[in-house]
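User: ok so my PI wants both of these folded by tonight, can you help

Assistant: No problem, let's get them done. Here's the first:
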Amino acid sequence: MAGPFGFMEKQTTTTEPMQQSRREFLRTSATAAGAALGSAPFVLAQSNKKTFKVALIGCGGRGSGALEDHFQAAKWLNDKHGLNLEIQLVAAADWFAGRAKAVGERHGLPANKCFGGADCYASALAENPDIVLMAQPPVFRPQHFEAVIGAGKHVFFEKPVAVDPPGVRRVIKAGEAAAQKGLCVVAGTQRRHEHGYNQLAREIRDGAYGRILGGRVSWCQGAIFTNTPIHPTGPDQLVGPWQIWVEMSGDHITEQHVHNLDVANWMLDAHPLSAVGFGYRVQRVAGNMYDFFSVDYEYPQGVHIHSTCRQVGGCWDWVGEQFTYEKRKPRDYKPAAPDPYQEVGYHESGYVGEHAHLLYAIVKGRPLNEARNVAWSTATAILGRESAYSGQKLTWAEMFEDPNAQPKWHNLQLRPTAEDFQTGQIKMLKDGDVRIPGKYKPA
């Protein structure tokens, strides 16, 4: 499949150890220059300015940050390439109407264009944006992504993109529809938009290191998120601290460690065939997620990747990826494979860069669709998570491909779903109601 700038987007790669702290959530002031682009040909004003309408769905810290990154990306493209782009924020939506209004106030958006509640995404789409930025809790993303693609909009959406196997399949199907419509889709796996990772990917694809023989990926850090018992009585106590609920976030192996798992898939140009994992919780008292996971992923050709992630204070921390290669790279080696982003370049921040690459691809009419990439990485995390929860060896085919092999895993759907929030038929979750390995079985 052709990449965004005429090269092969599907790359064979591997990475040296790189460390990355958790992304900054809030930026305080908006940059008043930006870009937005629609699925229809954009309209050029007499000044040759390209004005694009943008809607933000999910106005918490990450959503606010994504909007600022979008503005910054447009400014960078204007300065670097003279594109004369301008963003017009036309809608802000969030479960909590107050969050949407707060974003609207910072960007001069009228209150009647700020929407709350379970149907807020539909109200935002009714404003006819050209690009939709999606940063709502992961449980909502498959449903919202389907709606956004159905409406013919370009998309930036945060990772992970689902919390269960049916959600993964919904995203893949909607991503295929996006490709058929010529829509651009970029995910919040920002490493794919950083120069260092792309440089290494090119070297591996060229065969500079030979085969990847094995490796490890990790996101081990201190405790984050609230640890005060909540005892939820309504949906606000699920949507607000969504990170601590497995059904809302997918657990931290899915919500956070997906970055490193995405690198493994990218560099190996494959998804895992199976997973054997373990984990549990030792310090958390709020929510129902684990504190740590350790998973052995088996990839094609007998390659094993050891995945570790932990959110426990006072322990050794490491975030990164390391791979063992068949041979050393020659000292005088220069990659022959073309750089997929050479034409547009790389912003110093991958968070801004992912938006810059999205906008540039749209403006230039180049294909760029990361839906399957991020769906696979999300699925990789879910596969490892469920193996750890159950204590069983699980296969990719059983969970994501063959509906008849193990229906209980293929059809595993966490509740409440996005649709449950719309109907209001929500079964409350409980603090400390964790999956016990050896006893847990999917419903």
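One down. Here's the second:
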Amino acid sequence: MAEKTKRDPDLKLLVNRHEPVRVDEKGRITLQKEIRDALGSDVVLVCDVSKVMRMYPAEVFNKIQTDAKRRFSDDNASANYYFTVIYSNARLAEVDSANRLSIPADLRKFGGFDVKEECVVIASGRDFMVMPRKAYDSYMESPVKFMAPQREDVEILRKKAFEEEEELRRLERLLAPGE
């Protein structure tokens, strides 16, 4: 018998897909097979202030988080605050054999995902998002306007983290002996 090999998903299939789904009584949504294949079975969910839940394959999320943290020193309080805001509600979730993704109760509550209500999974080939239908309608009306408040707040935190990092590095150079 031939051994099954895991195929990478065809991300072209996923570009600009908007899949309506319902949250079941147990707080799960059923993912389309192509989306499930792209995400894998271990998924990290992160709900942001605009009530959008982003989905990442666990290994991709870990790489994103590690690469982002690598840019800053441990002494950078602004960066630590920025990462707390960005990653504090990240949760590991599993996709079962029936392609159902369990959304933890705290993320359902924070993101406004009500049982039996429709939400929409958006796959853009790089990003995977889930949002309640009301938020989706607002997003479709104007994605830029929908995301603007979150972007502004996060950008302020990010900028402050980079400014503090620059100052820390300047101080390190001043205090470095014999250079």
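The radius of gyration is 19 Å. The mean pLDDT is 83. Good luck tonight!
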